Amino acid sequence: MEISLADIARTIGGKLIGNGNKIIRGASCFENADKDHIILAGSAKYLNRLDETKAGAVIVPSNFDTSSISRDMVAVENPMADFSKLLEIFYPGPKVEQYISPNAVIGDNFISGNNISISHFVSIGSNVSMGDRVRIHSGVVIEDNVTIGSDVEIHSNVSIYARSQIGSRVIIHSGTVIGSDGFGFAPDKEKYQKIPHTGIVCIEDDVEIGALNAIDRATFGETRIKRGVKTDNFVHIAHNVVVGEDTLLVAQVGISGSTTLGNHVIVAGQAGISGHLNIGSNAIVGPRAGIAKDVPDNEIVSGAPEMPHKLWLRVQNIIPKLPELKKKISELEKRLKKVEEK
Amino acid sequence: MEISLADIARTIGGKLIGNGNKIIRGASCFENADKDHIILAGSAKYLNRLDETKAGAVIVPSNFDTSSISRDMVAVENPMADFSKLLEIFYPGPKVEQYISPNAVIGDNFISGNNISISHFVSIGSNVSMGDRVRIHSGVVIEDNVTIGSDVEIHSNVSIYARSQIGSRVIIHSGTVIGSDGFGFAPDKEKYQKIPHTGIVCIEDDVEIGALNAIDRATFGETRIKRGVKTDNFVHIAHNVVVGEDTLLVAQVGISGSTTLGNHVIVAGQAGISGHLNIGSNAIVGPRAGIAKDVPDNEIVSGAPEMPHKLWLRVQNIIPKLPELKKKISELEKRLKKVEEK
Amino acid sequence: MEISLADIARTIGGKLIGNGNKIIRGASCFENADKDHIILAGSAKYLNRLDETKAGAVIVPSNFDTSSISRDMVAVENPMADFSKLLEIFYPGPKVEQYISPNAVIGDNFISGNNISISHFVSIGSNVSMGDRVRIHSGVVIEDNVTIGSDVEIHSNVSIYARSQIGSRVIIHSGTVIGSDGFGFAPDKEKYQKIPHTGIVCIEDDVEIGALNAIDRATFGETRIKRGVKTDNFVHIAHNVVVGEDTLLVAQVGISGSTTLGNHVIVAGQAGISGHLNIGSNAIVGPRAGIAKDVPDNEIVSGAPEMPHKLWLRVQNIIPKLPELKKKISELEKRLKKVEEK
């Protein structure tokens, strides 16, 4: 792949600074770039030492003062996102060509679009449909009545239970389980009676699910992951949860049953959210937070129990000083006693 | 499926109120019920607005005053459990019919009961036995010398290591791993020497294991999951753990090696329990608790470090007020100084 | 397998005490040993009641006073590690013999050593190489351009993405995912642009990875798990993380992107480490700790926020006493007011 720097600037809508005829053959990182590579210098950490990289060209923020820099550059509004687009151009995923492994098993009434790729030991149930350019890696199990959109990639050893619905441009990483029964049992004297789960899981368009996620089907109705959601590894999403658009769920997050997250929420790593709560749009939940109450729109909460993030920062500072505070209280008591006895 | 309301009342042992001849054709939820559906109204949330559902019949608690309600109802002692039984009647799992995929591989000395179903790309080792009506989904791996009871369902891509023992009426959800080596290494100068794990995992009758659980085999002897235990997703059970009967382990719980849980324990989500502990019967461990000491029978503990739940509730209230308390202490110091200097 | 006690002493470099001609036929545990078994009594718990075991011989620490004990024993420097070596002798893993299942699929340009075993429904991509005595269990997926050393065991249903590198004497337990894309998305107005991950995962020699781990590939460059690392179940290792030699990661630990761990670190269960941090060599991170700052070499830290372990022990003691402290402060206020009003 060879692209001139001028073409790169045009493609990502940036401002060319320097030699537009320079040919770029790859995108890489600051430390390891070759002379025909383009790199990202999105923050001061890299911008302050641009002379240290061998890269042939640099993506810089449009508000960066380039007047004293003698390098070939492209200035953009949104360096990380624009550089990511370049990465996709230089390192495109494999083109999906029509291929169905003779070692795959496909059930009755299979409906599929064009250029689908189904690898070895994939098991597809009855009445499954999928769109164009769907790529199913080895060892994936898709049970009956599942629907899948177009331009979907499902990595190896994913398990998708019956009747799950998956949109277009969805990526699901290896080992993930979609549509398992929610954790619902009714006490029946000393034992527990299983509550059958007749609902489904819906995953909308443009969602990326990390490795080894578990997304449970609803008791009734649906568990819904809305457009643009991205999840890291080991995310647990219980029955009847709704995750709003463009929400990020970081690794090892757990969301209990029937909780609803708004749009553009961020839940940081290892946080847990109780059931039947509403987490407002644009809310941010701090790492390892334990959320037991509703969170309003636009709030940043941290801690367990959760509290406003700014308060939590102050609390965090005090906790290691508790032994000191305890000592102060004892001293105050002694001194006060003395004064009282006067 | 069509059942008269009188038959429903008889089947679940409830009291019929209203038209016993009404034909019911499904069970669903309050909001989406059709006229020939029966629903559950187990709590005030629904009982207070029974006029809002279209459902043809309602399961209500036997202590609910139905005198002023003009609806067809069945009053029962245990609404959730009894409604769950109805769900199983209206939406039974697929009947397990004898089917062994030509794409499964089964080792020597396979012993099996009647009406077993083994789906595609299932790998079964040597000397494996299973009872009647066992259903193995695609991609499951069962290694040598595993025994499985009757009426068991093992979902797709489950991995069961050699010599594991699984009882009857067990459900195991996708991606779960049973019988992997425990995390045991002996320091040997700077390096670690692996401690071989010669033990096994035993799962007793009526257990349901969620998706993506990991249950390690014992160093010697066995890791044992007793009758009626139910686990949510992502539960980690280390080597030589014993989980007592009818115990619930909620999502992302971790139990360290050689710990014993009594009967009818509940461990809430994301809690962690250290090794070599005893958690008493009927104990409840709060969400995200970190348990480092034994818990007596019938105790409710929360927090990390764990403490009685009622104490923890008070502690939880104070933590966000720590900045305030710190300020108060400073003020007290200043005021006391003034008094002292008088 | 029959070995004389004298040979056992010689093999593990211990001091024979008692009858060297005694024939030992197995190794087991204190409670269940037979007369021809050897057991480990590494701590006072067992050493104080050696008369209670039926075992024929006992491994004891070399500093244990055996003068009054009339038992056949072998005294060693490092009882657990030496006993583990005996376990490996008495219960060796199956000898790996050349076997490639007719139900496996292997891509072009496969290069392999001698005596490899590839079980059923294993999918191996193109340009994969592996050394001698590699054992791949059923349902494993290995994508293109993966390299694997010698004496490696990969358990069932593991997923290994393209270009991953795996050393020699590595064990990977079931369900683990190696090489999935890191969680990297660049905000692009309201949506997120995926950051392509062109890097790889390198796992060095003598590493053991537990069940259901997720180790993400680097954005650029590599995520590296160095020689001798051992991980428990459910460990999350994000993109560009480096884990130093002989480091232990206990169950449900999460390590965020670009963090580096030194050699011989221990991270206890359910702990989380933020991104872009340095955890020094020989550091110990306590269970459930939340690490947000660098940890120097040799430090022991606990808590969230992390603090020196000894401080944390004192803080842990005070937290349940917060209601008491709060009450004391109120009382002090009242008493001080009285004094002030005098």
UniProtKB/TrEMBL annotation, chains A, B, C:
CDD domains: LbH_LpxD. Pathway: Bacterial outer membrane biogenesis; LPS lipid A biosynthesis. One of its GO terms (cellular component) is membrane. GO terms for biological process: lipid A biosynthetic process. Its EC number is 2.3.1.191. It is an enzyme of class 2 (transferase). Keywords: Acyltransferase, Lipid A biosynthesis, Lipid biosynthesis, Lipid metabolism, Repeat, Transferase. The active site is at H239 (proton acceptor). InterPro entries: Hexapep, Hexapep_transf_CS, LpxD, Trimer_LpxA-like_sf, UDP_GlcNAc_AcTrfase_non-rep. Gene3D superfamilies: Hexapeptide repeat proteins, MurE/MurF, N-terminal domain. The keyword RNA-binding does not apply. Coiled coil: none annotated. It catalyses: a UDP-3-O-[(3R)-3-hydroxyacyl]-alpha-D-glucosamine + a (3R)-hydroxyacyl-[ACP] = a UDP-2-N,3-O-bis[(3R)-3-hydroxyacyl]-alpha-D-glucosamine + holo-[ACP] + H(+). Residues 23-88 form the UDP-3-O-[3-hydroxymyristoyl] glucosamine N-acyltransferase non-repeat region domain. GO terms for molecular function: N-acyltransferase activity; UDP-3-O-[(3R)-3-hydroxyacyl]-glucosamine N-acyltransferase activity. Catalyzes the N-acylation of UDP-3-O-acylglucosamine using 3-hydroxyacyl-ACP as the acyl donor. Is involved in the biosynthesis of lipid A, a phosphorylated glycolipid that anchors the lipopolysaccharide to the outer membrane of the cell. HAMAP family: LpxD. Homotrimer. Belongs to the transferase hexapeptide repeat family. LpxD subfamily. This is UDP-3-O-acylglucosamine N-acyltransferase. It comes from Desulfonema limicola. The lineage of its organism: Bacteria, Pseudomonadati, Thermodesulfobacteriota, Desulfobacteria, Desulfobacterales. The gene is lpxD.
